[in-house]
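User: Just a sanity check before I run the rest of the batch. Below are the structure tokens for the first item. I only need the designed sequence back.
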């Protein structure tokens, strides 16, 4: 009997310690936004319509926030954060589930 698993919805948040280097926003401004207080997940990309780093809320991303090719880029962006504060769940190697 085959077991099936449903992928969890994609969620991105920013932990404490962002140094506002601009790397993530420069590469994916649809999702990341630098503000005076640090990096945030854009309201337009969040399913809950909230603002801020999404650290407490852990809102999933809107399914229409990114196209397919862009989703594969998020892992690269997180890996390139100089202080490793970009965290995510629900992003597979080749797809993001909205
Ligand atoms: S890449 Fe990391 S340190 Fe740079 S702005 Fe984004 S979250 Fe902050």
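Assistant: Here's the designed sequence for the first item:
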């Amino acid at each position: 009997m085959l077991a099936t698993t449903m992928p969890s919805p994609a969620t991105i948040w920013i932990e404490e310690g962002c140094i506002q280097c601009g790397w993530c926003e420069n590469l994916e401004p649809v999702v990341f936004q630098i503000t005076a207080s640090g990096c945030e997940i854009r309201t337009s990309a969040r399913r809950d319509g909230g603002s801020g780093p999404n650290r407490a809320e852990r809102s999933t991303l809107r399914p229409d926030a990114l196209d397919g090719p862009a989703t594969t880029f998020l892992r690269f962006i997180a890996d390139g954060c100089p202080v490793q504060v970009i965290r995510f769940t629900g992003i597979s190697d080749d797809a993001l589930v909205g």
